[in-house]
Design goal:
Oligomer: heterodimer
Helix content of chain B: over 70%
Low-confidence stretches of chain B: none
CATH architecture of one domain in chain B: Orthogonal Bundle
Low-confidence stretches of chain A: none
Strand content of chain B: under 5%
Mean pLDDT of chain B: 91
Number of strands of chain B: 0
Order of helices and strands of chain A: HHHHHHHHHH
CATH architecture of chain A: Orthogonal Bundle
CATH topology of one domain in chain B: MetI-like fold
Number of strands of chain A: 0
CATH topology of chain A: MetI-like fold
Mean pLDDT of chain A: 91
Order of helices and strands of chain B: HHHHHHHH
Largest interface: A-B, 42 and 40 residues
Radius of gyration of chain A: 21 Å
Number of helices of chain A: 10
Chain lengths: 242, 218
Protein backbone atom coordinates (compact mmCIF):
# COMPACT_ATOMS: atom_id res chain seq x y z
CA UNK A 1 0.00 0.00 0.00
CA UNK A 2 1.18 3.48 -0.80
CA UNK A 3 2.01 5.86 1.99
CA UNK A 4 -0.88 8.11 0.91
CA UNK A 5 -3.43 5.32 1.36
CA UNK A 6 -1.96 4.50 4.75
CA UNK A 7 -2.14 8.10 5.94
CA UNK A 8 -5.66 8.26 4.54
CA UNK A 9 -6.62 5.16 6.54
CA UNK A 10 -5.06 6.64 9.68
CA UNK A 11 -7.00 9.88 9.27
CA UNK A 12 -10.19 7.94 8.53
CA UNK A 13 -9.73 5.72 11.60
CA UNK A 14 -9.12 8.75 13.83
CA UNK A 15 -12.14 10.47 12.32
CA UNK A 16 -14.34 7.44 13.02
CA UNK A 17 -13.10 7.33 16.63
CA UNK A 18 -13.84 11.07 16.96
CA UNK A 19 -17.26 10.62 15.44
CA UNK A 20 -18.10 7.70 17.74
CA UNK A 21 -16.85 9.68 20.75
CA UNK A 22 -19.67 12.16 20.24
CA UNK A 23 -22.14 9.44 21.21
CA UNK A 24 -22.48 8.61 24.89
CA UNK A 25 -22.78 4.87 24.26
CA UNK A 26 -19.22 5.02 22.93
CA UNK A 27 -17.61 7.94 24.80
CA UNK A 28 -18.43 6.18 28.06
CA UNK A 29 -15.73 3.60 27.36
CA UNK A 30 -13.10 5.76 25.71
CA UNK A 31 -11.20 7.04 28.79
CA UNK A 32 -10.77 3.54 30.24
CA UNK A 33 -9.70 2.10 26.92
CA UNK A 34 -7.18 4.87 26.30
CA UNK A 35 -5.73 4.23 29.75
CA UNK A 36 -5.30 0.59 28.74
CA UNK A 37 -3.81 1.66 25.42
CA UNK A 38 -1.12 3.56 27.33
CA UNK A 39 0.05 0.35 29.01
CA UNK A 40 -0.12 -1.43 25.65
CA UNK A 41 2.17 1.24 24.17
CA UNK A 42 4.59 1.00 27.11
CA UNK A 43 4.90 -2.77 26.73
CA UNK A 44 5.18 -2.52 22.95
CA UNK A 45 7.95 0.10 23.11
CA UNK A 46 10.01 -1.67 25.79
CA UNK A 47 9.43 -5.02 24.07
CA UNK A 48 10.58 -3.58 20.74
CA UNK A 49 13.79 -2.23 22.28
CA UNK A 50 14.54 -5.63 23.81
CA UNK A 51 13.66 -7.34 20.53
CA UNK A 52 16.09 -5.19 18.54
CA UNK A 53 18.88 -5.74 21.06
CA UNK A 54 18.29 -9.50 21.15
CA UNK A 55 17.90 -9.70 17.38
CA UNK A 56 21.22 -7.95 16.71
CA UNK A 57 23.08 -9.87 19.44
CA UNK A 58 21.75 -13.25 18.32
CA UNK A 59 22.48 -12.52 14.67
CA UNK A 60 26.05 -11.41 15.37
CA UNK A 61 26.58 -14.41 17.65
CA UNK A 62 25.34 -16.78 14.96
CA UNK A 63 27.47 -15.16 12.27
CA UNK A 64 30.72 -14.41 14.08
CA UNK A 65 30.51 -15.93 17.57
CA UNK A 66 32.71 -18.69 18.91
CA UNK A 67 31.15 -22.17 18.69
CA UNK A 68 29.42 -22.22 22.12
CA UNK A 69 28.02 -18.71 21.59
CA UNK A 70 26.80 -19.62 18.12
CA UNK A 71 25.19 -22.74 19.47
CA UNK A 72 23.50 -20.81 22.28
CA UNK A 73 22.09 -18.25 19.85
CA UNK A 74 20.76 -20.99 17.57
CA UNK A 75 19.00 -22.71 20.48
CA UNK A 76 17.50 -19.37 21.55
CA UNK A 77 16.19 -18.61 18.07
CA UNK A 78 14.79 -22.10 17.49
CA UNK A 79 13.06 -22.29 20.87
CA UNK A 80 11.43 -18.88 20.64
CA UNK A 81 10.43 -19.30 17.02
CA UNK A 82 9.25 -22.87 17.51
CA UNK A 83 6.77 -22.29 20.34
CA UNK A 84 3.90 -19.84 20.58
CA UNK A 85 4.20 -16.44 22.21
CA UNK A 86 1.38 -17.36 24.59
CA UNK A 87 3.14 -20.55 25.68
CA UNK A 88 6.32 -18.54 26.36
CA UNK A 89 4.37 -15.93 28.27
CA UNK A 90 2.65 -18.51 30.45
CA UNK A 91 5.85 -20.46 30.93
CA UNK A 92 7.71 -17.41 32.19
CA UNK A 93 4.73 -16.38 34.31
CA UNK A 94 3.77 -19.71 35.88
CA UNK A 95 6.85 -21.92 35.74
CA UNK A 96 9.74 -19.58 36.61
CA UNK A 97 8.29 -18.73 40.07
CA UNK A 98 8.43 -22.47 40.86
CA UNK A 99 12.19 -22.23 40.38
CA UNK A 100 12.23 -19.31 42.79
CA UNK A 101 12.47 -16.62 40.12
CA UNK A 102 9.69 -14.15 40.86
CA UNK A 103 8.98 -11.34 38.40
CA UNK A 104 6.03 -9.02 38.19
CA UNK A 105 3.65 -9.45 35.27
CA UNK A 106 4.93 -6.35 33.49
CA UNK A 107 8.53 -7.60 33.42
CA UNK A 108 7.35 -11.02 32.23
CA UNK A 109 5.32 -9.40 29.45
CA UNK A 110 8.21 -7.28 28.18
CA UNK A 111 10.65 -10.20 28.45
CA UNK A 112 8.42 -12.74 26.71
CA UNK A 113 7.39 -10.48 23.84
CA UNK A 114 10.85 -8.99 23.40
CA UNK A 115 12.55 -12.39 23.37
CA UNK A 116 9.91 -13.83 21.04
CA UNK A 117 10.14 -11.08 18.44
CA UNK A 118 13.91 -10.84 18.93
CA UNK A 119 14.23 -14.44 17.75
CA UNK A 120 12.42 -13.60 14.50
CA UNK A 121 14.40 -10.36 14.29
CA UNK A 122 17.73 -12.16 14.48
CA UNK A 123 16.89 -13.89 11.21
CA UNK A 124 16.06 -10.53 9.67
CA UNK A 125 19.38 -9.05 10.83
CA UNK A 126 21.31 -12.11 9.71
CA UNK A 127 19.65 -12.11 6.30
CA UNK A 128 20.30 -8.40 5.83
CA UNK A 129 23.98 -8.73 6.75
CA UNK A 130 24.46 -11.68 4.42
CA UNK A 131 22.66 -9.82 1.62
CA UNK A 132 25.23 -7.01 1.50
CA UNK A 133 26.99 -7.33 -1.85
CA UNK A 134 30.14 -9.51 -1.74
CA UNK A 135 32.18 -6.72 -3.33
CA UNK A 136 31.63 -4.61 -0.22
CA UNK A 137 33.15 -7.32 1.96
CA UNK A 138 36.04 -7.84 -0.40
CA UNK A 139 36.76 -4.13 -0.65
CA UNK A 140 36.79 -3.81 3.16
CA UNK A 141 39.25 -6.68 3.38
CA UNK A 142 41.35 -5.13 0.64
CA UNK A 143 41.44 -1.88 2.65
CA UNK A 144 42.79 -3.88 5.58
CA UNK A 145 39.88 -3.14 7.89
CA UNK A 146 39.40 -5.14 11.05
CA UNK A 147 36.17 -7.09 11.30
CA UNK A 148 34.70 -4.60 13.78
CA UNK A 149 35.54 -1.66 11.52
CA UNK A 150 34.16 -3.49 8.52
CA UNK A 151 30.86 -4.21 10.26
CA UNK A 152 30.50 -0.79 11.82
CA UNK A 153 31.48 1.36 8.87
CA UNK A 154 30.61 -0.65 5.78
CA UNK A 155 28.30 -3.59 6.34
CA UNK A 156 25.82 -2.61 9.05
CA UNK A 157 24.91 0.81 7.58
CA UNK A 158 23.98 -0.92 4.33
CA UNK A 159 22.26 -3.85 6.04
CA UNK A 160 20.30 -1.37 8.16
CA UNK A 161 18.36 -0.11 5.13
CA UNK A 162 17.34 -3.63 4.13
CA UNK A 163 16.25 -4.38 7.69
CA UNK A 164 13.75 -1.57 8.07
CA UNK A 165 10.70 -3.02 6.27
CA UNK A 166 10.85 -6.47 7.93
CA UNK A 167 11.43 -4.87 11.33
CA UNK A 168 8.34 -2.75 10.70
CA UNK A 169 6.32 -5.94 10.24
CA UNK A 170 7.83 -7.41 13.39
CA UNK A 171 6.97 -4.30 15.43
CA UNK A 172 3.37 -4.66 14.30
CA UNK A 173 3.43 -8.34 15.25
CA UNK A 174 4.77 -7.31 18.65
CA UNK A 175 2.08 -4.67 19.07
CA UNK A 176 -0.57 -7.25 18.26
CA UNK A 177 0.98 -9.78 20.64
CA UNK A 178 0.68 -7.30 23.51
CA UNK A 179 -3.00 -8.26 23.57
CA UNK A 180 -1.84 -11.57 25.08
CA UNK A 181 -0.58 -9.89 28.24
CA UNK A 182 -4.21 -9.37 29.23
CA UNK A 183 -4.18 -13.09 29.99
CA UNK A 184 -1.51 -12.66 32.67
CA UNK A 185 -3.49 -10.04 34.61
CA UNK A 186 -2.01 -6.88 33.06
CA UNK A 187 -4.62 -4.16 32.50
CA UNK A 188 -3.75 -3.34 28.91
CA UNK A 189 -6.18 -2.39 26.14
CA UNK A 190 -7.39 -5.97 25.61
CA UNK A 191 -7.87 -6.49 29.35
CA UNK A 192 -9.86 -3.26 29.73
CA UNK A 193 -12.04 -4.31 26.82
CA UNK A 194 -12.82 -7.66 28.37
CA UNK A 195 -13.41 -6.15 31.80
CA UNK A 196 -15.84 -3.55 30.44
CA UNK A 197 -17.51 -6.16 28.27
CA UNK A 198 -18.13 -8.36 31.28
CA UNK A 199 -19.56 -5.57 33.41
CA UNK A 200 -21.66 -3.78 30.78
CA UNK A 201 -22.23 -6.36 28.01
CA UNK A 202 -21.97 -3.53 25.47
CA UNK A 203 -19.87 -5.73 23.21
CA UNK A 204 -20.23 -3.94 19.89
CA UNK A 205 -19.19 -0.42 20.94
CA UNK A 206 -16.35 -1.65 23.14
CA UNK A 207 -14.74 -3.99 20.64
CA UNK A 208 -15.28 -1.61 17.72
CA UNK A 209 -13.36 1.07 19.61
CA UNK A 210 -10.64 -1.40 20.62
CA UNK A 211 -10.14 -2.58 17.05
CA UNK A 212 -9.94 1.04 15.87
CA UNK A 213 -7.39 1.96 18.54
CA UNK A 214 -5.18 -1.01 17.60
CA UNK A 215 -5.57 -0.06 13.94
CA UNK A 216 -4.41 3.50 14.66
CA UNK A 217 -1.35 2.21 16.51
CA UNK A 218 -0.43 -0.27 13.75
CA UNK A 219 -0.85 2.33 11.05
CA UNK A 220 1.31 4.76 13.01
CA UNK A 221 4.07 2.13 13.12
CA UNK A 222 3.74 1.35 9.41
CA UNK A 223 3.83 5.02 8.41
CA UNK A 224 6.73 5.76 10.76
CA UNK A 225 8.77 2.88 9.36
CA UNK A 226 8.05 3.99 5.79
CA UNK A 227 9.42 7.44 6.59
CA UNK A 228 12.46 5.93 8.26
CA UNK A 229 13.01 3.78 5.19
CA UNK A 230 12.83 6.79 2.90
CA UNK A 231 15.27 8.73 5.05
CA UNK A 232 17.70 5.81 5.34
CA UNK A 233 17.70 4.85 1.68
CA UNK A 234 18.19 8.40 0.39
CA UNK A 235 21.34 8.51 -1.71
CA UNK A 236 21.63 4.73 -2.03
CA UNK A 237 21.53 3.12 -5.43
CA UNK A 238 19.72 0.05 -4.13
CA UNK A 239 16.37 -0.40 -2.45
CA UNK A 240 13.13 1.46 -2.94
CA UNK A 241 13.58 4.96 -4.33
CA UNK A 242 13.06 7.76 -1.85
CA UNK B 1 11.38 -29.58 40.49
CA UNK B 2 10.58 -31.89 37.62
CA UNK B 3 8.44 -34.89 38.53
CA UNK B 4 8.57 -37.60 35.87
CA UNK B 5 5.68 -39.63 37.27
CA UNK B 6 3.45 -36.54 37.29
CA UNK B 7 4.52 -35.71 33.74
CA UNK B 8 3.62 -39.25 32.63
CA UNK B 9 0.33 -39.06 34.49
CA UNK B 10 -0.85 -35.92 32.67
CA UNK B 11 0.48 -37.00 29.29
CA UNK B 12 -2.71 -38.80 28.11
CA UNK B 13 -4.88 -35.79 29.03
CA UNK B 14 -2.55 -33.47 27.16
CA UNK B 15 -2.39 -35.83 24.19
CA UNK B 16 -6.16 -35.81 23.79
CA UNK B 17 -6.14 -32.00 24.05
CA UNK B 18 -3.42 -31.91 21.39
CA UNK B 19 -5.92 -33.51 19.01
CA UNK B 20 -8.24 -30.52 19.50
CA UNK B 21 -5.31 -28.20 18.79
CA UNK B 22 -4.50 -30.06 15.58
CA UNK B 23 -8.16 -30.09 14.54
CA UNK B 24 -8.40 -26.34 15.08
CA UNK B 25 -5.21 -25.86 13.07
CA UNK B 26 -6.38 -27.93 10.12
CA UNK B 27 -9.92 -26.52 9.93
CA UNK B 28 -8.61 -23.00 10.44
CA UNK B 29 -6.06 -23.42 7.68
CA UNK B 30 -8.60 -24.83 5.22
CA UNK B 31 -10.76 -21.74 5.82
CA UNK B 32 -7.72 -19.48 5.48
CA UNK B 33 -6.42 -21.12 2.29
CA UNK B 34 -9.80 -21.21 0.51
CA UNK B 35 -11.02 -17.79 1.62
CA UNK B 36 -7.62 -16.27 0.87
CA UNK B 37 -7.76 -17.70 -2.65
CA UNK B 38 -11.31 -16.43 -3.06
CA UNK B 39 -10.26 -12.92 -1.98
CA UNK B 40 -7.33 -12.93 -4.39
CA UNK B 41 -9.52 -14.19 -7.26
CA UNK B 42 -12.30 -11.68 -6.67
CA UNK B 43 -9.69 -8.93 -6.65
CA UNK B 44 -8.46 -9.95 -10.08
CA UNK B 45 -11.81 -10.84 -11.63
CA UNK B 46 -13.67 -7.72 -10.46
CA UNK B 47 -11.22 -4.80 -10.58
CA UNK B 48 -13.24 -2.29 -8.52
CA UNK B 49 -13.07 -4.63 -5.48
CA UNK B 50 -9.28 -4.27 -5.30
CA UNK B 51 -9.35 -1.21 -3.06
CA UNK B 52 -12.01 -2.35 -0.54
CA UNK B 53 -10.35 -5.77 -0.30
CA UNK B 54 -6.91 -4.31 0.35
CA UNK B 55 -8.37 -2.06 3.07
CA UNK B 56 -10.13 -5.07 4.61
CA UNK B 57 -6.92 -7.10 4.52
CA UNK B 58 -5.01 -4.23 6.13
CA UNK B 59 -7.70 -3.93 8.82
CA UNK B 60 -7.55 -7.62 9.67
CA UNK B 61 -3.77 -7.73 9.65
CA UNK B 62 -3.28 -4.68 11.86
CA UNK B 63 -5.49 -5.75 14.77
CA UNK B 64 -4.71 -8.52 17.26
CA UNK B 65 -6.13 -11.97 16.63
CA UNK B 66 -7.13 -12.22 20.31
CA UNK B 67 -9.45 -9.22 19.95
CA UNK B 68 -10.88 -10.66 16.73
CA UNK B 69 -11.59 -13.94 18.52
CA UNK B 70 -13.39 -12.10 21.34
CA UNK B 71 -15.22 -9.97 18.81
CA UNK B 72 -16.62 -12.98 16.92
CA UNK B 73 -17.35 -14.90 20.09
CA UNK B 74 -19.19 -12.07 21.84
CA UNK B 75 -20.65 -10.14 18.92
CA UNK B 76 -22.21 -12.94 16.90
CA UNK B 77 -24.71 -13.82 19.66
CA UNK B 78 -25.94 -10.19 19.57
CA UNK B 79 -27.14 -10.84 16.04
CA UNK B 80 -28.77 -14.11 17.04
CA UNK B 81 -25.99 -16.38 15.75
CA UNK B 82 -24.86 -18.49 18.68
CA UNK B 83 -21.58 -20.22 17.99
CA UNK B 84 -19.79 -22.50 20.41
CA UNK B 85 -16.33 -21.39 21.45
CA UNK B 86 -14.50 -23.81 19.16
CA UNK B 87 -16.42 -22.77 16.03
CA UNK B 88 -16.14 -19.04 16.74
CA UNK B 89 -12.44 -19.35 17.51
CA UNK B 90 -11.62 -21.42 14.44
CA UNK B 91 -13.57 -19.03 12.18
CA UNK B 92 -11.67 -16.07 13.69
CA UNK B 93 -8.31 -17.76 13.14
CA UNK B 94 -9.33 -18.76 9.61
CA UNK B 95 -10.42 -15.21 8.75
CA UNK B 96 -7.25 -13.70 10.20
CA UNK B 97 -4.97 -15.94 8.22
CA UNK B 98 -7.13 -15.65 5.10
CA UNK B 99 -6.02 -12.01 5.02
CA UNK B 100 -2.37 -13.07 5.11
CA UNK B 101 -2.91 -15.90 2.59
CA UNK B 102 -4.70 -13.62 0.13
CA UNK B 103 -1.53 -11.53 -0.09
CA UNK B 104 0.49 -14.67 -0.77
CA UNK B 105 -1.86 -15.70 -3.57
CA UNK B 106 -1.76 -12.18 -4.94
CA UNK B 107 2.02 -12.33 -5.16
CA UNK B 108 1.62 -15.71 -6.88
CA UNK B 109 -0.79 -14.27 -9.46
CA UNK B 110 1.48 -11.28 -10.05
CA UNK B 111 4.27 -13.69 -10.93
CA UNK B 112 2.39 -15.25 -13.84
CA UNK B 113 3.72 -13.85 -17.11
CA UNK B 114 1.19 -11.69 -18.93
CA UNK B 115 1.58 -13.88 -22.00
CA UNK B 116 -0.27 -16.69 -20.21
CA UNK B 117 -3.38 -14.52 -19.85
CA UNK B 118 -3.08 -13.22 -23.40
CA UNK B 119 -2.65 -16.72 -24.83
CA UNK B 120 -5.78 -17.85 -22.95
CA UNK B 121 -7.75 -15.00 -24.45
CA UNK B 122 -6.31 -15.77 -27.89
CA UNK B 123 -7.42 -19.39 -27.46
CA UNK B 124 -10.88 -18.10 -26.57
CA UNK B 125 -10.88 -19.84 -23.17
CA UNK B 126 -13.62 -18.70 -20.81
CA UNK B 127 -12.36 -16.86 -17.72
CA UNK B 128 -13.26 -19.74 -15.41
CA UNK B 129 -11.29 -22.25 -17.49
CA UNK B 130 -8.37 -19.84 -17.72
CA UNK B 131 -8.17 -19.66 -13.94
CA UNK B 132 -8.75 -23.36 -13.35
CA UNK B 133 -6.56 -24.90 -16.04
CA UNK B 134 -3.92 -22.29 -16.86
CA UNK B 135 -3.33 -19.81 -14.07
CA UNK B 136 -3.97 -21.58 -10.75
CA UNK B 137 -1.85 -24.67 -11.56
CA UNK B 138 1.07 -22.29 -12.14
CA UNK B 139 0.31 -20.09 -9.14
CA UNK B 140 0.16 -22.76 -6.46
CA UNK B 141 3.55 -24.59 -6.56
CA UNK B 142 5.80 -21.54 -6.01
CA UNK B 143 3.73 -20.27 -3.08
CA UNK B 144 3.49 -23.58 -1.21
CA UNK B 145 6.43 -22.70 1.10
CA UNK B 146 4.88 -19.33 2.01
CA UNK B 147 1.52 -20.95 2.69
CA UNK B 148 3.30 -23.63 4.73
CA UNK B 149 4.91 -20.96 6.88
CA UNK B 150 1.48 -19.50 7.57
CA UNK B 151 0.22 -22.97 8.47
CA UNK B 152 2.94 -23.19 11.12
CA UNK B 153 2.22 -19.64 12.29
CA UNK B 154 -1.49 -20.46 12.54
CA UNK B 155 -0.69 -23.61 14.50
CA UNK B 156 1.28 -21.54 16.97
CA UNK B 157 -1.64 -19.12 17.41
CA UNK B 158 -4.13 -21.81 18.44
CA UNK B 159 -3.29 -21.41 22.17
CA UNK B 160 -5.21 -18.13 21.91
CA UNK B 161 -8.36 -20.24 21.80
CA UNK B 162 -7.78 -20.93 25.50
CA UNK B 163 -8.90 -17.33 26.12
CA UNK B 164 -12.46 -18.29 25.17
CA UNK B 165 -12.16 -21.57 27.08
CA UNK B 166 -11.76 -23.99 24.17
CA UNK B 167 -10.34 -27.14 25.72
CA UNK B 168 -7.23 -27.22 23.58
CA UNK B 169 -3.70 -27.89 24.75
CA UNK B 170 -3.02 -24.60 26.55
CA UNK B 171 -6.36 -24.51 28.35
CA UNK B 172 -5.94 -28.13 29.46
CA UNK B 173 -2.45 -27.36 30.76
CA UNK B 174 -3.80 -24.35 32.66
CA UNK B 175 -6.56 -26.44 34.21
CA UNK B 176 -4.07 -29.11 35.27
CA UNK B 177 -1.91 -26.35 36.73
CA UNK B 178 -4.67 -24.73 38.73
CA UNK B 179 -5.93 -28.12 39.97
CA UNK B 180 -2.58 -29.42 41.16
CA UNK B 181 -0.55 -26.21 41.66
CA UNK B 182 2.11 -27.77 39.46
CA UNK B 183 2.68 -25.68 36.37
CA UNK B 184 6.20 -26.80 35.51
CA UNK B 185 5.33 -30.11 33.88
CA UNK B 186 2.15 -29.21 31.92
CA UNK B 187 3.52 -25.88 30.62
CA UNK B 188 6.88 -27.37 29.65
CA UNK B 189 5.23 -30.31 27.91
CA UNK B 190 3.00 -27.94 25.94
CA UNK B 191 6.06 -25.91 24.95
CA UNK B 192 7.90 -29.06 23.86
CA UNK B 193 4.90 -30.22 21.84
CA UNK B 194 4.81 -26.94 19.91
CA UNK B 195 8.57 -26.93 19.44
CA UNK B 196 8.67 -30.48 18.07
CA UNK B 197 5.66 -29.94 15.80
CA UNK B 198 7.09 -26.68 14.45
CA UNK B 199 10.50 -28.19 13.73
CA UNK B 200 8.95 -31.24 12.06
CA UNK B 201 6.62 -29.15 9.91
CA UNK B 202 9.45 -26.80 8.95
CA UNK B 203 11.41 -29.83 7.76
CA UNK B 204 8.36 -31.14 5.87
CA UNK B 205 7.87 -27.80 4.14
CA UNK B 206 11.50 -27.83 3.04
CA UNK B 207 11.08 -31.32 1.56
CA UNK B 208 7.84 -30.32 -0.17
CA UNK B 209 9.55 -27.23 -1.56
CA UNK B 210 12.30 -29.36 -3.06
CA UNK B 211 9.78 -31.80 -4.57
CA UNK B 212 7.77 -28.98 -6.14
CA UNK B 213 10.87 -27.28 -7.51
CA UNK B 214 11.82 -30.52 -9.20
CA UNK B 215 8.42 -30.76 -10.85
CA UNK B 216 8.33 -27.17 -12.05
CA UNK B 217 11.77 -26.16 -13.26
CA UNK B 218 12.31 -22.43 -13.66
Amino acid sequence: MGIRTLVGMLVAALAVIGLLATQTSYSLFLPGLLQGALLTIEIAVLGSVLAVVMGVLAALARLYGAAPLRWLATVYVEIFRGTSALVQLFWLFFVLPQFGLLMDAFTVAVLALGLNVGAYGSEVVRGAILAVAPGQWEASIALNMSRAQMLRRIILPQAFVAMIPPWGNLFIELLKSTALVSLITLTDLAFKAQQMNQSTLKTVPIFTLVLLIYLVMSLAITIGMRFLEQRASAGLSRGRAA
Amino acid sequence: MWDWSFALEILPTLASAAIITIEATLIGFVIAALLGLALALVRIAIPWTAWPISVLVELIRSTPLLIQIFFLYFVFPKFGVVLDAFTAGVIAIGLHYAAYCSEVYRAGFDNIPRGQWEASIALNLPQWATFRDIIIPQVIPPIVPALGNYLVALFKETPLLSAIAVLELMQTAKIIGSDTFRYTEPMTLVGLFFLVMSLVSAALIRILERLLNRRTPR
